[in-house]
Amino acid sequence: MTAVMSTYGRYDLAFERGEGPYLFAMDGRRYLDFGTGIAVTSLGHCHPHLVKALQEQVATLWHCSNLYTIPGQVKLAERLAANSFGDAVFFCNSGLESMEAAIKLCRRYHFQKGDEKRWRTLTVEGAFHGRSLATIAAAKNAKHLEGFGKPVDGFDQVPFGDLDALRAAITDETACIAFEPVQGEAGIIPADLDYLRQLRKIADEFGILLLLDEVQCGMGRTGKLFAHEWAGITPDVMSLAKGLGGGFPIGAIVATAEAAKGLTPGTHGSTFGGNPLASAAANAVLDVMLEDGFMEGVDKKARKFWNDLKEVTGRYPKVYETVRGAGMMLGIKCVVPAGDVITKFHEAGLLPVPAGDNVVRFLPPLTAEESHFAEALEIVDATGKALEAGGG
Fold this sequence. Notes:
Mean pLDDT: 97
Strand content: 15-25%
Number of helices: 13
Protein backbone atom coordinates (compact mmCIF):
# COMPACT_ATOMS: atom_id res chain seq x y z
CA MET A 1 0.00 0.00 0.00
CA THR A 2 1.26 3.48 -0.88
CA ALA A 3 0.60 6.73 0.96
CA VAL A 4 -1.97 7.63 -1.70
CA MET A 5 -5.52 7.08 -0.45
CA SER A 6 -7.25 4.14 -2.10
CA THR A 7 -10.09 6.06 -3.72
CA TYR A 8 -9.40 4.61 -7.17
CA GLY A 9 -9.34 1.09 -8.60
CA ARG A 10 -6.17 1.73 -10.54
CA TYR A 11 -4.78 -0.34 -13.38
CA ASP A 12 -1.24 -1.62 -12.95
CA LEU A 13 0.13 0.90 -15.42
CA ALA A 14 2.34 3.96 -14.92
CA PHE A 15 3.46 6.40 -17.59
CA GLU A 16 6.52 8.60 -17.90
CA ARG A 17 5.70 10.68 -20.95
CA GLY A 18 3.18 11.38 -23.67
CA GLU A 19 3.41 12.39 -27.30
CA GLY A 20 0.41 13.14 -29.47
CA PRO A 21 -2.08 10.27 -29.10
CA TYR A 22 0.43 8.03 -27.32
CA LEU A 23 1.47 7.38 -23.73
CA PHE A 24 4.77 5.69 -22.91
CA ALA A 25 4.92 3.43 -19.85
CA MET A 26 7.80 3.31 -17.40
CA ASP A 27 9.10 0.21 -19.19
CA GLY A 28 9.09 2.08 -22.50
CA ARG A 29 6.03 0.39 -24.01
CA ARG A 30 3.85 2.62 -26.16
CA TYR A 31 0.06 2.79 -25.72
CA LEU A 32 -2.52 4.43 -27.95
CA ASP A 33 -4.40 6.73 -25.60
CA PHE A 34 -8.08 6.73 -26.54
CA GLY A 35 -9.12 7.73 -23.04
CA THR A 36 -7.24 11.07 -22.95
CA GLY A 37 -7.33 11.26 -19.18
CA ILE A 38 -11.15 10.95 -19.33
CA ALA A 39 -11.66 13.47 -22.16
CA VAL A 40 -9.07 15.92 -20.80
CA THR A 41 -6.03 15.91 -23.11
CA SER A 42 -8.20 17.10 -25.97
CA LEU A 43 -5.27 18.00 -28.25
CA GLY A 44 -3.23 14.93 -27.37
CA HIS A 45 -0.13 14.90 -25.20
CA CYS A 46 2.42 17.71 -25.33
CA HIS A 47 0.82 19.56 -28.24
CA PRO A 48 3.57 21.95 -29.43
CA HIS A 49 1.38 25.06 -29.26
CA LEU A 50 0.17 24.22 -25.76
CA VAL A 51 3.68 23.42 -24.58
CA LYS A 52 5.01 26.72 -25.92
CA ALA A 53 2.21 28.74 -24.32
CA LEU A 54 2.74 27.11 -20.94
CA GLN A 55 6.53 27.44 -21.10
CA GLU A 56 6.22 31.15 -21.80
CA GLN A 57 3.67 31.67 -19.03
CA VAL A 58 5.46 29.57 -16.42
CA ALA A 59 8.55 31.72 -16.89
CA THR A 60 6.63 34.94 -16.18
CA LEU A 61 3.68 34.55 -13.77
CA TRP A 62 1.88 31.51 -12.39
CA HIS A 63 -0.60 32.92 -9.91
CA CYS A 64 -1.72 36.20 -8.40
CA SER A 65 -5.34 35.45 -7.27
CA ASN A 66 -8.61 36.92 -8.41
CA LEU A 67 -8.09 39.98 -6.23
CA TYR A 68 -6.49 41.43 -9.35
CA THR A 69 -7.30 41.66 -13.03
CA ILE A 70 -5.79 38.74 -14.98
CA PRO A 71 -5.44 39.79 -18.65
CA GLY A 72 -5.26 36.20 -19.93
CA GLN A 73 -8.41 35.35 -18.04
CA VAL A 74 -10.24 38.33 -19.49
CA LYS A 75 -9.13 37.27 -22.97
CA LEU A 76 -10.29 33.69 -22.35
CA ALA A 77 -13.68 34.80 -21.06
CA GLU A 78 -14.20 37.08 -24.05
CA ARG A 79 -13.33 34.27 -26.45
CA LEU A 80 -15.64 31.76 -24.76
CA ALA A 81 -18.46 34.29 -24.77
CA ALA A 82 -17.85 35.27 -28.39
CA ASN A 83 -17.99 31.63 -29.49
CA SER A 84 -21.01 30.60 -27.45
CA PHE A 85 -24.42 31.82 -26.32
CA GLY A 86 -22.91 33.42 -23.22
CA ASP A 87 -22.13 36.88 -22.00
CA ALA A 88 -20.33 36.16 -18.72
CA VAL A 89 -17.84 33.51 -17.59
CA PHE A 90 -16.69 32.36 -14.15
CA PHE A 91 -13.50 30.30 -13.80
CA CYS A 92 -12.71 27.54 -11.34
CA ASN A 93 -10.53 24.42 -11.33
CA SER A 94 -12.64 21.40 -12.26
CA GLY A 95 -15.90 20.06 -13.58
CA LEU A 96 -17.20 19.49 -10.08
CA GLU A 97 -16.50 23.11 -9.15
CA SER A 98 -18.15 24.34 -12.33
CA MET A 99 -21.32 22.41 -11.52
CA GLU A 100 -21.35 23.66 -7.93
CA ALA A 101 -21.00 27.21 -9.21
CA ALA A 102 -23.69 26.69 -11.83
CA ILE A 103 -26.17 25.31 -9.32
CA LYS A 104 -25.48 28.25 -7.02
CA LEU A 105 -25.93 30.66 -9.93
CA CYS A 106 -29.33 29.17 -10.77
CA ARG A 107 -30.54 29.48 -7.19
CA ARG A 108 -29.17 32.97 -6.82
CA TYR A 109 -30.79 34.08 -10.09
CA HIS A 110 -34.26 33.48 -8.69
CA PHE A 111 -33.33 34.98 -5.32
CA GLN A 112 -32.16 38.14 -7.09
CA LYS A 113 -35.52 38.32 -8.85
CA GLY A 114 -37.33 38.10 -5.53
CA ASP A 115 -38.49 34.52 -6.07
CA GLU A 116 -36.65 32.97 -3.12
CA LYS A 117 -38.75 29.81 -3.10
CA ARG A 118 -37.16 28.60 -6.36
CA TRP A 119 -34.04 26.71 -5.29
CA ARG A 120 -34.43 23.08 -6.34
CA THR A 121 -32.59 21.44 -9.26
CA LEU A 122 -34.23 18.84 -11.48
CA THR A 123 -31.98 16.12 -12.92
CA VAL A 124 -32.48 12.88 -14.86
CA GLU A 125 -31.61 9.28 -14.08
CA GLY A 126 -28.08 8.26 -15.04
CA ALA A 127 -26.71 11.74 -14.44
CA PHE A 128 -23.21 12.36 -13.16
CA HIS A 129 -22.38 15.90 -12.09
CA GLY A 130 -19.39 15.38 -9.80
CA ARG A 131 -18.57 13.93 -6.39
CA SER A 132 -19.25 16.70 -3.89
CA LEU A 133 -22.02 16.18 -1.36
CA ALA A 134 -24.31 18.37 -3.45
CA THR A 135 -23.57 16.84 -6.84
CA ILE A 136 -23.87 13.23 -5.68
CA ALA A 137 -27.23 14.22 -4.25
CA ALA A 138 -28.11 15.72 -7.62
CA ALA A 139 -27.25 12.53 -9.51
CA LYS A 140 -28.83 10.20 -6.93
CA ASN A 141 -26.53 7.28 -7.73
CA ALA A 142 -26.96 4.95 -4.75
CA LYS A 143 -23.37 3.71 -4.98
CA HIS A 144 -21.98 7.24 -4.78
CA LEU A 145 -24.32 8.22 -1.94
CA GLU A 146 -23.63 5.21 0.27
CA GLY A 147 -21.96 5.99 3.57
CA PHE A 148 -22.19 9.77 3.40
CA GLY A 149 -25.28 10.29 5.51
CA LYS A 150 -28.49 12.01 4.55
CA PRO A 151 -28.23 13.39 0.99
CA VAL A 152 -28.16 17.14 0.53
CA ASP A 153 -31.66 18.45 -0.11
CA GLY A 154 -32.65 20.49 -3.13
CA PHE A 155 -32.56 17.91 -5.90
CA ASP A 156 -35.34 16.03 -7.69
CA GLN A 157 -35.00 13.45 -10.44
CA VAL A 158 -37.03 11.98 -13.30
CA PRO A 159 -36.38 9.21 -15.85
CA PHE A 160 -34.13 10.12 -18.77
CA GLY A 161 -36.18 10.96 -21.87
CA ASP A 162 -39.56 11.17 -20.14
CA LEU A 163 -40.87 14.66 -20.84
CA ASP A 164 -44.22 14.01 -19.17
CA ALA A 165 -42.50 13.02 -15.94
CA LEU A 166 -40.24 16.05 -16.17
CA ARG A 167 -43.15 18.43 -16.60
CA ALA A 168 -44.98 16.82 -13.69
CA ALA A 169 -41.93 17.16 -11.42
CA ILE A 170 -41.59 20.92 -11.89
CA THR A 171 -43.00 22.82 -8.93
CA ASP A 172 -42.95 26.40 -7.76
CA GLU A 173 -39.67 25.53 -5.99
CA THR A 174 -37.84 24.38 -9.14
CA ALA A 175 -35.00 26.70 -10.15
CA CYS A 176 -33.44 24.83 -13.05
CA ILE A 177 -33.10 21.68 -15.12
CA ALA A 178 -29.54 20.28 -15.08
CA PHE A 179 -28.73 17.95 -17.95
CA GLU A 180 -25.81 16.36 -19.82
CA PRO A 181 -26.36 16.42 -23.61
CA VAL A 182 -24.35 13.19 -23.67
CA GLN A 183 -24.21 11.19 -20.46
CA GLY A 184 -20.65 9.98 -20.01
CA GLU A 185 -20.34 7.99 -16.80
CA ALA A 186 -23.70 6.31 -17.38
CA GLY A 187 -22.34 4.64 -20.50
CA ILE A 188 -22.19 7.21 -23.34
CA ILE A 189 -25.88 7.92 -23.74
CA PRO A 190 -26.66 10.83 -26.08
CA ALA A 191 -29.91 12.73 -25.78
CA ASP A 192 -32.19 12.86 -28.76
CA LEU A 193 -31.84 16.32 -30.28
CA ASP A 194 -35.56 16.96 -30.12
CA TYR A 195 -35.48 16.08 -26.41
CA LEU A 196 -32.93 18.84 -25.92
CA ARG A 197 -35.15 21.24 -27.82
CA GLN A 198 -38.10 20.29 -25.62
CA LEU A 199 -36.03 20.90 -22.48
CA ARG A 200 -35.41 24.43 -23.71
CA LYS A 201 -39.13 24.96 -24.37
CA ILE A 202 -40.16 23.58 -21.00
CA ALA A 203 -37.64 25.73 -19.14
CA ASP A 204 -39.00 28.80 -20.91
CA GLU A 205 -42.59 27.78 -20.27
CA PHE A 206 -42.05 27.42 -16.52
CA GLY A 207 -39.69 30.38 -16.14
CA ILE A 208 -36.76 28.28 -14.95
CA LEU A 209 -33.16 28.02 -16.15
CA LEU A 210 -31.67 25.36 -18.39
CA LEU A 211 -28.26 24.29 -17.10
CA LEU A 212 -26.27 22.06 -19.46
CA ASP A 213 -23.39 20.05 -18.05
CA GLU A 214 -20.86 19.94 -20.89
CA VAL A 215 -17.89 19.09 -18.69
CA GLN A 216 -17.21 15.96 -20.73
CA CYS A 217 -19.12 16.45 -23.98
CA GLY A 218 -18.07 20.07 -24.52
CA MET A 219 -14.92 21.58 -26.04
CA GLY A 220 -15.18 19.88 -29.42
CA ARG A 221 -15.82 16.36 -28.19
CA THR A 222 -18.94 15.90 -30.35
CA GLY A 223 -17.63 17.66 -33.46
CA LYS A 224 -18.91 21.10 -32.52
CA LEU A 225 -17.39 23.32 -29.86
CA PHE A 226 -20.41 22.61 -27.63
CA ALA A 227 -22.68 19.58 -27.86
CA HIS A 228 -25.94 21.53 -27.56
CA GLU A 229 -25.18 23.27 -30.86
CA TRP A 230 -26.33 20.15 -32.71
CA ALA A 231 -29.86 20.79 -31.41
CA GLY A 232 -29.84 24.45 -32.41
CA ILE A 233 -30.62 25.60 -28.87
CA THR A 234 -28.86 27.66 -26.23
CA PRO A 235 -28.91 27.06 -22.48
CA ASP A 236 -28.95 29.75 -19.83
CA VAL A 237 -25.90 28.29 -18.09
CA MET A 238 -23.25 25.78 -19.16
CA SER A 239 -20.52 24.07 -17.18
CA LEU A 240 -17.15 23.29 -18.78
CA ALA A 241 -13.87 21.68 -17.72
CA LYS A 242 -11.89 18.60 -18.89
CA GLY A 243 -10.86 19.45 -22.47
CA LEU A 244 -10.85 23.21 -21.82
CA GLY A 245 -7.30 23.17 -20.47
CA GLY A 246 -5.97 20.36 -22.64
CA GLY A 247 -4.61 18.68 -19.50
CA PHE A 248 -4.17 21.68 -17.23
CA PRO A 249 -6.87 21.91 -14.53
CA ILE A 250 -9.46 24.57 -15.30
CA GLY A 251 -13.24 24.71 -15.15
CA ALA A 252 -15.74 27.37 -16.13
CA ILE A 253 -19.38 28.30 -16.23
CA VAL A 254 -20.70 30.30 -19.16
CA ALA A 255 -23.97 32.15 -18.66
CA THR A 256 -26.21 34.72 -20.23
CA ALA A 257 -26.04 38.20 -18.75
CA GLU A 258 -29.53 37.73 -17.33
CA ALA A 259 -28.70 34.43 -15.61
CA ALA A 260 -25.41 35.75 -14.26
CA LYS A 261 -26.95 38.77 -12.52
CA GLY A 262 -27.18 36.98 -9.20
CA LEU A 263 -23.48 36.23 -8.80
CA THR A 264 -22.25 39.52 -7.39
CA PRO A 265 -19.00 40.17 -5.46
CA GLY A 266 -18.84 37.95 -2.41
CA THR A 267 -21.45 35.41 -3.54
CA HIS A 268 -18.92 33.00 -5.05
CA GLY A 269 -15.21 32.76 -5.71
CA SER A 270 -12.13 30.64 -6.38
CA THR A 271 -8.56 31.16 -5.21
CA PHE A 272 -6.94 29.39 -8.14
CA GLY A 273 -9.66 29.66 -10.77
CA GLY A 274 -8.53 31.12 -14.08
CA ASN A 275 -5.07 32.03 -12.83
CA PRO A 276 -2.45 33.12 -15.40
CA LEU A 277 -1.14 29.59 -15.97
CA ALA A 278 -4.57 28.00 -16.38
CA SER A 279 -5.76 30.81 -18.64
CA ALA A 280 -2.67 30.47 -20.84
CA ALA A 281 -3.37 26.76 -21.26
CA ALA A 282 -7.04 27.26 -22.14
CA ASN A 283 -6.29 30.12 -24.54
CA ALA A 284 -3.79 27.88 -26.33
CA VAL A 285 -6.42 25.14 -26.60
CA LEU A 286 -8.87 27.63 -28.09
CA ASP A 287 -6.22 28.82 -30.55
CA VAL A 288 -6.24 25.34 -32.04
CA MET A 289 -9.94 24.53 -31.73
CA LEU A 290 -11.04 27.82 -33.30
CA GLU A 291 -8.80 27.43 -36.35
CA ASP A 292 -10.74 27.37 -39.62
CA GLY A 293 -11.76 23.83 -40.46
CA PHE A 294 -10.66 22.24 -37.18
CA MET A 295 -14.13 21.29 -35.94
CA GLU A 296 -15.20 20.19 -39.39
CA GLY A 297 -12.18 17.91 -39.42
CA VAL A 298 -13.07 16.48 -36.03
CA ASP A 299 -16.61 15.78 -37.21
CA LYS A 300 -15.43 14.11 -40.41
CA LYS A 301 -12.92 11.88 -38.62
CA ALA A 302 -15.44 11.00 -35.94
CA ARG A 303 -18.10 9.94 -38.44
CA LYS A 304 -15.69 7.65 -40.24
CA PHE A 305 -14.43 6.13 -36.99
CA TRP A 306 -17.99 5.55 -35.80
CA ASN A 307 -18.94 3.75 -39.03
CA ASP A 308 -15.75 1.70 -39.04
CA LEU A 309 -16.19 0.82 -35.36
CA LYS A 310 -19.75 -0.34 -35.96
CA GLU A 311 -18.58 -2.50 -38.86
CA VAL A 312 -15.76 -4.10 -36.87
CA THR A 313 -17.73 -4.71 -33.68
CA GLY A 314 -20.60 -6.12 -35.73
CA ARG A 315 -18.38 -9.07 -36.66
CA TYR A 316 -18.36 -10.30 -33.08
CA PRO A 317 -21.93 -10.29 -31.69
CA LYS A 318 -20.93 -12.54 -28.77
CA VAL A 319 -18.49 -9.87 -27.56
CA TYR A 320 -19.80 -6.47 -28.67
CA GLU A 321 -23.46 -5.47 -28.58
CA THR A 322 -23.63 -1.95 -30.01
CA VAL A 323 -21.79 1.33 -30.57
CA ARG A 324 -23.33 4.57 -29.37
CA GLY A 325 -22.37 8.14 -28.61
CA ALA A 326 -21.61 11.34 -30.49
CA GLY A 327 -18.52 12.58 -32.30
CA MET A 328 -15.35 11.45 -30.57
CA MET A 329 -17.28 10.37 -27.49
CA LEU A 330 -18.15 6.78 -28.30
CA GLY A 331 -19.06 3.75 -26.25
CA ILE A 332 -19.04 0.06 -27.07
CA LYS A 333 -21.69 -1.74 -25.04
CA CYS A 334 -20.33 -5.21 -24.50
CA VAL A 335 -21.90 -8.65 -24.16
CA VAL A 336 -18.99 -10.07 -22.22
CA PRO A 337 -17.79 -8.15 -19.13
CA ALA A 338 -16.39 -4.79 -20.24
CA GLY A 339 -13.51 -5.28 -17.83
CA ASP A 340 -12.38 -8.34 -19.81
CA VAL A 341 -12.44 -6.30 -23.02
CA ILE A 342 -10.42 -3.51 -21.43
CA THR A 343 -7.84 -6.00 -20.16
CA LYS A 344 -7.38 -7.33 -23.69
CA PHE A 345 -7.17 -3.79 -25.07
CA HIS A 346 -4.44 -2.96 -22.56
CA GLU A 347 -2.50 -6.08 -23.50
CA ALA A 348 -2.64 -4.95 -27.13
CA GLY A 349 -1.59 -1.37 -26.33
CA LEU A 350 -4.92 0.50 -26.41
CA LEU A 351 -6.23 2.62 -23.53
CA PRO A 352 -10.01 3.21 -23.30
CA VAL A 353 -12.08 4.29 -20.28
CA PRO A 354 -14.70 2.17 -18.50
CA ALA A 355 -18.26 3.46 -18.13
CA GLY A 356 -21.57 2.31 -16.74
CA ASP A 357 -23.92 -0.17 -18.43
CA ASN A 358 -21.02 -2.51 -19.30
CA VAL A 359 -19.59 0.04 -21.73
CA VAL A 360 -16.04 0.63 -22.95
CA ARG A 361 -15.58 4.33 -23.65
CA PHE A 362 -13.45 5.80 -26.47
CA LEU A 363 -12.45 9.45 -26.04
CA PRO A 364 -9.60 9.90 -28.54
CA PRO A 365 -7.71 13.16 -28.87
CA LEU A 366 -9.41 15.50 -31.32
CA THR A 367 -6.10 15.66 -33.18
CA ALA A 368 -5.95 11.90 -33.84
CA GLU A 369 -5.33 10.97 -37.47
CA GLU A 370 -6.58 8.16 -39.71
CA SER A 371 -3.58 5.96 -38.89
CA HIS A 372 -4.40 6.15 -35.18
CA PHE A 373 -8.02 5.18 -35.72
CA ALA A 374 -6.89 2.32 -37.94
CA GLU A 375 -4.56 1.12 -35.18
CA ALA A 376 -7.41 1.17 -32.66
CA LEU A 377 -9.73 -0.69 -35.02
CA GLU A 378 -7.16 -3.45 -35.53
CA ILE A 379 -7.04 -3.97 -31.76
CA VAL A 380 -10.84 -3.94 -31.45
CA ASP A 381 -11.00 -6.53 -34.23
CA ALA A 382 -8.30 -8.78 -32.76
CA THR A 383 -9.85 -8.58 -29.29
CA GLY A 384 -13.29 -9.47 -30.61
CA LYS A 385 -11.86 -12.42 -32.48
CA ALA A 386 -9.97 -13.70 -29.44
CA LEU A 387 -12.84 -13.31 -26.98
CA GLU A 388 -15.45 -14.76 -29.32
CA ALA A 389 -13.23 -17.79 -29.79
CA GLY A 390 -12.96 -18.06 -26.01
CA GLY A 391 -9.22 -17.60 -26.16
CA GLY A 392 -6.76 -15.24 -24.55
